[in-house]
Amino acid sequence: MSESHAPVAAPRPVPFIARCKGEVPYTGPLTMTDGWISYPATRTSDRGEGSVLIQRTVGAPTGPVRAADIDPGRQFEAMAGFLCQGCGGPSTRRPGSHARLWALPAVQNGRPVEPAGLRTESPPVCAVCVREHLPRCPVMRPGHQLLWVRLAPVVGVMATPLPPSLPSVGTAPPRFLPLPPDIDSDDGGMEGGAPLGGACAAWQCALAQSLVREIQSCIPADPAKVAELAARQRVEQAGGGPCPLSAPVGSALSTAGGTR
């Protein structure tokens, strides 16, 4: 008698937002749909904040992880839902607060990084990943700062603006595009499929690589306290009980208003 087995889900890469060797950027054709660039068969997951088109990754998450090669779709998912960039689970929430844990470089280009007002493409983290995965991260290895971030609204995307006549994905470097002020967050930036006003033409023809938040309110996080939270989270995970350090995606949060 043959033994049946339930299908096993493919493990998520670590870091969650990084591409694996088996994943590559989509380089196929693009189309225009109601004034917006689209894939020939656009999926719901291909659209991000304000209906901007996210650069698609093709292939399977197999092989070694390339930590410096970020998957746009998973970056958007983590940044929009306040998921941990390391494991893809909920990021750690400060006890008694809705502030989320962030790990940012302490030094860039030889200069200290001031977090207040910083625009970042780096999603938040969970305490366990800070302890177990952060020390191996090539970006953070030179040093990082841990922060409890209370307010980090979405301010735009890093994207490549494409001309409407472009038949396929180009190779121009991405640049920062601010969130258009007339995007209606209730309908995701499209009203009945109609394009937005002329001021949003660049947004409509942008191929986005990452979602950008601005750190507007934060305080330093004590590494010793974060280690305690990581230990407690590990105990909760081992026991199968609810983890008080994480909240369901979207709870008390807003992509427009950030954390509190």
Task: Give a structural overview.
This protein has 260 residues and is of the alpha+beta class. It has one domain. It has four helices and 16 strands. It has helices at residues 72-81, 127-132, 201-204, 223-239; strands at residues 18-20, 23-25, 31-33, 36-38, 53-54, 57-59, 65-70, 100-105, 107-108, 111-112, 119-120, 144-151, 154-161, 175-178, 206-214, 217-220. The strands form six sheets. Strands 5, 11, 13, 14 and 15 form a five-stranded mixed beta sheet that branches. A three-stranded antiparallel beta sheet has the order 8-12-16, with no helix packed on it. A hairpin with a 2-residue loop joins β9 (107-108) and β10 (111-112). It is globular, with a radius of gyration of 19 Å. The N and C termini lie far apart (57 Å). The model is unreliable at 1-10, 184-199 and 241-260 (pLDDT under 50).
SSE inventory with pairings:
Elements: E1 18-20, E2 23-25, E3 31-33, E4 36-38, E5 53-54, E6 57-59, E7 65-70, H1 72-81, E8 100-105, E9 107-108, E10 111-112, E11 119-120, H2 127-132, E12 144-151, E13 154-161, E14 175-178, H3 201-204, E15 206-214, E16 217-220, H4 223-239
Parallel strand pairs: 5-15
Antiparallel strand pairs: 1-7, 2-6, 3-4, 8-12, 9-10, 11-15, 12-16, 13-14, 13-15
How many domains is the backbone divided into?
A: 1
Oligomeric nature of the chains: single chain
Topology, number of strands: 16
Number of helices: 4
User: What is the N-to-C succession of helices and strands?
Assistant: EEEEEEEHEEEEHEEEHEEH
Q: Compute the gyration radius: what is it?
A: 19 Å
How confident overall, as mean pLDDT? 80
> What proportion of the residues form beta strands (DSSP E)?
25-35%
Poorly predicted parts: 1-10, 184-199, 241-260
Question: What portion of residues is helical?
Answer: 10-25%
Basic shape: globular
